[in-house]
Amino acid sequence: MGNDALSAEVDLSHVDYRSVQQSPEFQELRRTHRSFVFPVLTACLVWYFAYVLLAVYAVEFMSTRVFGSVNVAMVLGLAQVVTTFAVTMWYVHYANKRLDPRSEQIREEIETGVFGAESEEVVR
Q: How far is CA 71 from CA 18, 77, 97, 98, in A?
């Protein structure tokens, strides 16, 4: 996948990384990544700060017993951990399905020297 190490034979000294970064393919990859990360990050931060604010300002609510010695704060704290694992698994699935194939294609084009060849031909 995209984390495989480059072989020692590949010479990338000729690559113009600025043009790669400004290419439509790379910009689409960034847009796809950001369209997932920013909304999910926002939701997770809201969820985290809601928990902290509840712990600080709604002490009676958070200390309400659910069963035995377990209270609302403990349940919501555990839900924070579960949320972290769920979001991680969701991102890995998303990256494997949408990000990795695109980044692998860009990487292969860079390594083979094909990347940007179409745009250079148009300019000539």
A: 54, 10, 39, 40
